[in-house]
Write a structure and sequence with these properties.
This protein is mainly α. The protein contains four helices and no strands.
């Protein structure tokens, strides 16, 4: 168990040390399962197509056409899934990472004395982050 914990800590420290990388890593991990499913289906369809071709039966043509159509649909779905994955990463980075980065920059400017402490922080944050910030500042 200690080996797994050390492996996790090492990966997080070296590869996933930013919030962007964590978001991207999790979504890509989910995409890999879809890619594996596509590879499995495509491989199975190819094997069935080869067996039917070896049999040289009269009805092999329509079955091979169905398998080719299934492969094309599976390929289309994997491309759509890839596009969805990229859009999800961009959306989550916009939703989560950007407000935290902006807040961090504003707090750094306050700390360096470059920002007026009597002004409120810019409201680019979502309501959840504003509540979190207020709770942190008030405690």
């Amino acid at each position: 168990m200690e080996l797994i914990v050390n492996l996790y800590k090492g990966l997080e420290k070296n590869l996933f040390n930013t919030l962007s990388r964590k978001v991207i890593g999790n979504i890509v991990f989910l995409f890999l399962f879809q890619l594996f499913l596509f590879a499995t289906i495509y491989s199975g369809n190819s094997k069935v197509e080869n067996l039917i071709t070896l049999q040289k039966t009269v009805t092999a043509g329509p079955i091979i056409d169905v398998l080719k159509t299934a492969n094309l649909i599976a390929l289309s779905l994997i491309v759509l899934s890839l596009i969805t994955t990229v859009c999800s990463i961009m959306f989550l980075r916009h939703l989560i990472v950007r407000p935290i980065r902006d807040l961090n920059q504003q707090l750094s400017r306050m700390n360096m004395g470059e920002m007026d402490l009597t002004k409120e922080l810019e409201a680019t944050l979502t309501m959840s982050f504003m509540i979190l910030l207020r709770t942190t500042i008030n405690s």
